[in-house]
Amino acid sequence: LSFCNAQELRKCLEILPSGPQWKFMVVEVDFPIKQPPLLYFCDAIECLQALLSDPALIGHIECCPRKIFNSAEKIHQVYHDWLTGDHAWELQSLLPPGVMLLGVILLSDKTHMTTFGNCQAHLLLISLANI
Question: How many Å is the maximal CA-CA distance in the chain?
Answer without folding.
Answer: 68
